[in-house]
Design brief:
By secondary structure, the protein is mainly beta. The chain has a domain of about 60 residues: Nuclear Transport Factor 2, Chain: A (Roll). It has a six-stranded antiparallel β-sheet, with helices on one face. β1 and β2 form a beta hairpin.
Length: about 90
């Protein structure tokens, strides 16, 4: 995986398939604080941000690396108060 999700929180699951990876992590933070650093992390990993949406109680970032990969990062509150679940999905589109 081109991004180290462990730097963002505790990785709780990883599902690796031939054409995609889905990883989840939980962090002690807010959506605003967690979401704020991700666009730069994605850009530093060579991804281009396609769209962003932050509603406060959940947020999404959609990204791509040319025609080789697409993905999203979803931020949701929980599972406990004061925690954020981060779901990272990257699909190989080459």
């Amino acid at each position: 995986m081109p991004l180290d999700l462990a730097k963002a929180g505790t990785v709780t699951s990883v599902d690796v398939r031939p054409d995609y990876v889905v990883a989840k992590a939980v962090t002690e933070s807010t959506i605003e604080a967690t979401y704020g650093s991700f666009p730069d992390v994605l850009r530093d990993a060579g991804f281009e941000i396609a769209a962003e949406e932050n509603e406060g109680i959940e947020a999404d970032i959609f990204f791509a690396k040319g025609t080789d990969a697409t993905g999203s990062v979803k931020f949701t509150e929980g599972p406990c108060q004061g925690q954020v679940t981060i779901t990272l999905t990257i699909a190989d589109t080459a």
